[in-house]
Amino acid sequence: MFEDKYLNKSNLKVQVSTILVLAVPAMIENILQTIVGFVDILFVAKLGLVEVTAVGIANAVLAIYMAIFMAVGVGASSLIARSIGAGDVDKAKAIAKQSTILAIIVGIIFGIITLFFSDSLLRFMGAESKVVALGATYLRIVGIPSVFIALMLIFGSLLRAYGDTKTPMYVSWWMNILHIGLDYVLIFGLGSWVGWGVAGAAWATVVVRILGALVLYYYIRKSSISFSLFDSINSSSLVTSLIKISTPAAIERLIMRFGQVLYFGLIVYIGTETFAAHTIAGNIETFSYMPGYGLAIAATTLVGQQIGAGKYKEAYQYGIITTGIAIVFMSIVGIFMFFCAPWMASWFTSDNEAIQMVITALRIDAFAQPALAVGLVLTGALQGAGDTKSPLYSTAIGMWLIRIIGVYIMGVYLGMGIAGIWLAIALDLLIRAIFLTWRYRSLFLCLMKEEKQVPERLLKN
Question: Which of 1, 80, 145, 377 is least enclosed by beta carbons within 10 angstroms?
Fold first, then answer.
């Protein structure tokens, strides 16, 4: 796959070094954030499997919110990276400001939705009444101040798009240490105080996100893309470009998240214990995403900057090389996951049946890691080039025609349970990887053959 005549092997070491300089801090940041989510579920699991299910379902709803916020970040990252590549820092500042305003507006809207419809959203997923009660408590506490989720995500995206992946990593380091400490105290209490249980986990998350958003904005104000929300900038065309790129990314993530809500509902239908095991396995599996996410960020930034500079061949090379690095990293993670599944499952529960289900899920997922690596990085590379539609198509096909139908047929109809669920997920990842590889090569082969083509044309693909 990676033996390509367009790859300049003489520059390979320099390109790999450039990729890793950007990717490694992003990987570390993602690992730190994942550790917090891991510890969060680990602590909640000590309360019981019902509590795990409640938090898992509430987080599935919150993931829909985050999908929209991240889509704004995708649009901003693509435009800023290309502006930096073209040497237009003023344009990058204007994009940063407009994306922040858009994130604030969307965050307020989702906060209002959470205030009035938390119970309804959880009932829609088919949760039991006791799960709805706990889940709604968590959802309201975390979801009403959604604007801080939006701001923390967008500020991190702005810094990374500029090429600064170290600052979000440092901020994440300190915020996550604080989160773990708050989590324990607010869930289990201190001294004679018994703590708030699930509500405590939610409040710990909110406090850390507020502080994280403030600290990241402080660093943006010190950077070369510093902006003030009160500056007067004529940027209507930038808003149009931002929305044009962000909309397909938002639709893609909504398709993913709504599909996730639907197949989560199918898993809940199979049984609360199965959903709890699926949540635990998914929480462990998120560690495998970390190399891919970090490298995807590097691909978005580097491909976008090279496109902005009009260097299409170099942009193509960065995407392919980054994908190869991701496959190596994530295959190693898959091997570790396969052999260490029993040990990791035992951290969360002592229920033997639940442990066996988690082991089954993780061992199936171990074989899907190379395909996951390809999908994550090439999605980032295409978004860096301004093509947010191809990931949309791959997600729509993969989620709705493969994953959901697969979960129903194998998990429910054929009674394969957790094995059927994760086999459907693996098949989805494989099909997406094949499609995105084809699309990425086709897009850049076309660009490299038409040297006079301008970057803006990518937005129309």
Answer: 1
* Structure confidence by residue, pLDDT tens digits, 369-420: 999 999 999 999 998 888 888 999 999 999 988 999 999 999 888 989 899 9
Mean pLDDT, the chain, whole residue set = 85
- Distance between CA atoms of 160 and 166, rounded to whole angstroms? 8
Q: How many domains does the chain have?
A: 1
Q: Tokens for 28? A: 């570390």
Residues 99-147 pLDDT 10s: 898 899 999 999 999 999 999 988 877 778 888 888 999 999 999 999 9
**Residue 31: pLDDT band with limits 50, 70, 90:** confident
The pair of structure tokens assigned to 394 is: 């791959």
Residue 4 lies in a domain: no
5-25 pLDDT, tens digit each: 555 665 778 888 889 888 888
| Domain contains 332 | yes
The structure's pTM equals: 0.76
Give the domain range for residue 393: 9-460
The C-alpha atoms of residue 94 and residue 233 are separated, in whole angstroms, by: 7
Nearest one of 40, 71, 210 to 138, comparing CA atoms:
40
Is residue 3, in this structure, part of any structural domain at all? no
